[in-house]
Fold:
Amino acid sequence: MAGTTEERIAQAISILQRVAEDTGVPRNIRRAASEAIETLQKRDLTPGLRAANAISILEEISQDPNMPLFARTSIWQAVSLLEQVKD
Structure:
């Protein structure tokens, strides 16, 4: 079970990295994606807590009207992966 949790987190990180590295995405959204990645990489927190913290960062920016559609889809993808992570 632990493997699948970390795999989901790793998948979410890779999705968010694509958003964070895309210069076509507004800077505040890239920054939030990077923040979520950093949160997910904090090993001192439980996987469920890391996921919950990242989700709250992502949900805050998911309503941004300046977000390109593909970035919004990617963020929703990452959130749905992270919602499956439980302690």
Remarks:
- Residues 2-82 form a domain with the de novo design (two linked rop proteins) fold (CATH 1.20.1440.50).
- The longest helix spans residues 2-21.
- The chain is about 70% helix and 0% strand.
- The radius of gyration is 12 Å.
